[in-house]
Amino acid sequence: MSGTTTAGAPRRAVGGGANRWVVLVVLCVSLLLVALDATVLHVAMPSVTEDLRPSSTALLWIVDAYPLVCAALLILFGTLGDRVGRRRVLLLGYALFGVASAIAALAETPGVLIAARALLGVGGAMIMPATLSILRAVFPDRRERATAIGIWTAVAAVGAATGPVLGGFLVEHFWWGSVFLINIPLMVLALPLGRLLLPESTGDTDGPWDVFGALMAAFGVLGVVLGVKRAGAGEPLAAATALPLLAGAALLVLFVARQKRRSHPLIDMRMFARPAFTTSVGCIVLAMLALVGLELIAVQYLQLVLGLSPLETGLRLLPLTFAAMAAGASGSYTLARVGPRRMVGWGFVLTAAAVLLLTLMGQQDRPALLTTGFLLLGFGLQTTLFGAYESMLSEAPAEAAGGAAAIGETSYQLGAGMGIALLGSVMNAAYAPGLADVPDSGVPAAARDAAANSLGEAYQEADRLGGALGDVLRTTARESFVTGLHVTLLVSAGLLLLGALAALRLPRGMDGAPDEEEAARVPVCREPVESAGSGRAAH
Questions:
Q1: DSSP per residue over 123-177, as a string?
Q2: pLDDT tens for residues 31-66?
Q3: In this structure, are residues 378 and 101 in contact, taking their beta carbons and an 8 Å threshold?
Q4: Number of C-alpha atoms within 13 angstroms, CB side, residue 131?
Q5: Are 18-209 and 275-512 in the same CATH fold?
Q6: How buried is residue 386: exposed, middle or buried, by Cβ count under 10 Å (0-12/13-18/19+)?
Q7: What is the Rg, in whole angstroms, of the alpha carbon atoms belonging to the chain?
Q8: Contact (Cβ atoms closer than 8 angstroms) between residue 398 and residue 6
Q9: Which of 63, 337, 386, 477 has the fewest C-beta atoms under 10 angstroms from its C-beta?
Q10: What is the pTM of this model?
Q11: Where do the structural domains in the chain lie, given as residue ranges?
Q12: What's the CATH fold of domain 18-209?
């Protein structure tokens, strides 16, 4: 059977379809949960390190286990939701997320915390594509769906920005495990609401589910993301980087070939034959590449060059978040007025202009310049992401919504990893040569070599040397970092303009008419009715 089908109890529409917006609220609570957990641990890491005493390798896995596992399993659970029910997968994700949060909060060893973070990644992979695919199902009208996506993306921005602030408050007043316990109240709220209010829907259920193909995709994405992350950590030529990257890429190539041969594939590769779908996925990768890479470098600049505290740094970055929220809230109106091509293209252009404006940053603090640049950056990037996500979901068939959402979220994760790897590598390549003349001032070679690794290490070496030599090393390193920052911003602007050119493949306008047959099939609310035969809710 093809098309979007529904399961469960008879449905009813209330208030001219108002229940769709209630469903959106529940989905946004789900998204808030995942977005918070992606960033809330960052500020707690010093406390985790002091309490659990993890090794350097364990520390990396505590941070990376969640995003790696989540990225690897998005396609698996996105397509599974199409087969067995998106609501069912989402509710299971809720439960697993809650259990894993409790385990993480009570962890007494690094190994237990790593395992809990991996379980959180599994739960996140079940939740993320399910929210988007359910959103695609309950909003068959494209204009309403655009409004829903705008709210959805605004909530994502709020969650990502709130995570560090909330985490800092909790760590300051409680112990580090409290950053995980905040998930429990959200689960207590979301699980019964989801069970009561969310509709069930499936996609094409003909033929067996390709378990082997799902595992190929999972290990392929895991290898690629792991390799990209290690490259971003400064080991682009190491075997630990090359082997997973090459193995992951090979598995993904084999996965694509397998899907093309199967009569009932996990992911319909014909979607990639649609220029709008492929372009939208590429634009998501480019936008996330720029966003994550620039945020990482901006944090280093604010703290190490301008000398701001972590709290002051967070406050300086708030304009970026507020602008992203504004872009999400106004995205539906903008899309209806200008269409996907102009929205995504001009979003890239605006972001490139913001990046070029930020090249005026130097060693002195210029708050007005930074605020203006971050406002334009946040608004431009969120405009681009909004248009790209909306176009991607609208191009995908309703029966493949879970797979399409998984592709979008995987692209998001890959773009984030590539941003750290690529722009971090550019930054390092532009920063290190600036320290070449330091030995002429009498700075020992060992101190210079250590300083060439990062600005933070340069400051440590400068403090160790002290006196005039320390001042020389500190000043030279700061100047080199600013030079590297400018080079990185120029490279980023070039990539963003490349994205603007790619956006020319998107359609000019959007068709606001709903698919009437699909709208008739898709539920907007569940009304539980017990079946006399089975005691379960029946259609």
A1: HHHHHHHHHHHHHHHH--SHHHHHHHHHHHHHHHHHHHHHHHHHHHHHHHHS-TT
A2: 777 777 666 666 666 677 777 777 766 776 777 778
A3: no
A4: 30
A5: yes
A6: buried
A7: 24
A8: no
A9: 337
A10: 0.70
A11: 18-209, 210-265, 275-512
A12: Growth Hormone; Chain: A; (1.20.1250)
